[in-house]
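Researcher: I'm comparing several assemblies side by side, and this is the next one on my list. It has 570 residues spread over two chains. Same procedure as the others: predict the full complex and return the structure.
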Amino acid sequence: MTTIASAAPMPRALRPVPLARRAFWLIAPALVLIGVFLVLPYLNIVLMSLRPPAVGAPYGAGFTLANYGAALTDGYLLGVLGDTLLLGFTVTPICLLLGYPVAYHLARTTSRWGSVLYVLVLSPLLVGVVVRSFGWLILLSGNGVINRVLLDLGLVETGLQLMNNRLGVTIALVHVFLPFMILPLVGVIQSIDPSLEAAARSLGASRLKVFWRLVLPLSWPGIQAGTILVFVLALSAYVTPVMLGGAQVKTMSVLVVQNLIDNFQWPAGAAQALVLTACGMAAVALYAKLTGRFMKGLA
Amino acid sequence: MNRRAPLSHRVADGFGLLYVGAVYAFLLLPIAIIVLMSLNAGEFMTFPPQGISLRWFGALFANEAFMRAIRTSLMLAAVATLISSVIGIAGALYVVRHAERLREPLRMLLMMPLMLPEILTAIALLFFLYASGIGTRTMFGLVVGHVLVTLPYVFTNVASALYNQDASLEQAARSLGASPWRAFVRVTLPLIKPGIITGALFAFVISFDLFNMSLLLKGIGMTTLPLQLFDYLRWDFDPTAAAVSTVSILLTLAVVVWVDRAVGLRSLRFG
C-alpha cells in the first residue's frame, strides 16, 4: 500500500491525511455517548456496590464491603441466585433442542414460505416483552386457554397449575429466547456445503452418522454462540419472571429491581447485580473452555 | 427425497417435519392468541371467543391512559431513532471507511449495548444519572437509554450496507471536485439508503417495545405503552389489554413488511 502511494503521488483531492483527521468527528458522537453513558455508568456500579446504605437517601457516604458480605452469606439471597442460575441451565438446553432442528430446516428449505417462516422465528424478538408474556398469561392461567381446552376435552379433571411457578416462567423464557438460538445456528448451517453431506452419504455413511460426524461438529460455533447468548439473557430476565412467576419464582433481576425501586437500597442492589454478573461470566468462561477443548478434539 | 427412499427414512422425515412444525406453532401461539382475544365480542377473555367484534378497540380508543401512553411511546421512539440514526450512520461511515486498524475494536464498542443485559445497563444509568445530578425529572435519561439500546441496530445495518458498496464511487465523485459532504449526500447516501431504512425502522420498533430501560429511568407521572400495559395487567384482565397488544403487534408487522419490500428480511443484521 505504502509503496504504491510513494511510487505514484495521489492527486490532492484524494490525499487521505487531512480527511482522516476531519473524519474523526464522524465517530466522536458515538464515542462520547458510549464512553459517558455506558462505560462510566458500568464502572460506577462497582463504586455504588461499595457504598453503605442510608436512611432517606439511596446510599450513604464512605465505603464498605458489607454489601458483598450480605450478598454472599445470606441464605435467602443465595437461594435466589441458585434459582436464577438453574433457570438459565434449564432454558438453554431446551432452546437448543427446540431450536436446532428449526435452524436446520430454515437453512436448507427451498419453500416459497421461507421468508414467512423467517418472520415467525424473528417474531418473539420483535414483539414487546410485555405483550409476549401477556400472550402466555392468556394461555397458561388457571382459567386460561390451555386449561379450558384440556377440561372441555375431558383430558383432565381439574385445571393444571401452569403458571405462578417455574414451569410457566421456563415456557415463556424458552419462547422469548428461541430466536437468539436459531439465528446464529441458521448462519452456521447455511455455510456448510450441502454437497459435503451428499458426498458422505454416497460413501455409505448412514443419515444419523452424517449428522453426528459431519453436520453437528461443523455447526459447533453456532451452538456455542447461541447457548451462551441464551444463558446470559435468561439470567437477566425481569419482565417474564414477574408476570408468569408471580410471588413463587424470584430471580436475581426481580430482587435487584425490588431493592432499587421499592426498598431504595441501591448499594445492596448493585452488589447483588455484580455477584450475578460474576457468576454468569464464570459459568460462560468455564463452558467456553470445556466446549473449546471439545471443538479442538473434533477438528 | 426421491420416491425410492426407504420407509424408515420417510417416517423419520415425517416426524422431523412434525417436530419443526410444532416449534413454529409454539413461536406463533402467544401472538396469535392475543389477536384472537382482542376480537372477542364477549365481556371477558373466554375461549373459544363469543363471536367477533371490534368493541375492545373502541374501549381502547376511549381509554385516556392508554392513548396518552401510546403517544408518549411514539414520540420517544421517534426522538431516539432520529438521534441514534445520526450517530449510527456517522459512526458506521468512520468505522467502515476510515478506521483501518481500529475497525474491529470500534465495531465491538458500538455493538456493546446489545451484548450487555438491558436491565444492567438501565441500573447503571439510573445510578449514574443520580450521581451526576442529572436525575430523572426530565426525559433526558430516558432518551439516552433508548438511544444506547437502538444505536447498534442502526450501526450494524448501515455498516453492512457500506461494506457492500465500493468506496471508489465516492472517491470518483471527490476527484471530480465534489466536497466530502456533497459526495456523501449525492453518492453514498442513495446507495446505503436500504441499510439506513432497515436500521432506523428496527430501532423504532425496539424503542417502542423497550421495557426495562423505561421502568428504571422514567420520570414521575410519565409512562410508556409497555409500562402502562404492565400496570394495567396487575389489576385488570379484560380484552382492552389484548386490543392494545394487537395494535403494538400490527405496528411491528407493518415495519417487517416494509423492510421485506425494501431490502428483504434476510439481509437484516442483529449482531
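Model: For your comparison table: Chain B has one domain: 58-267.
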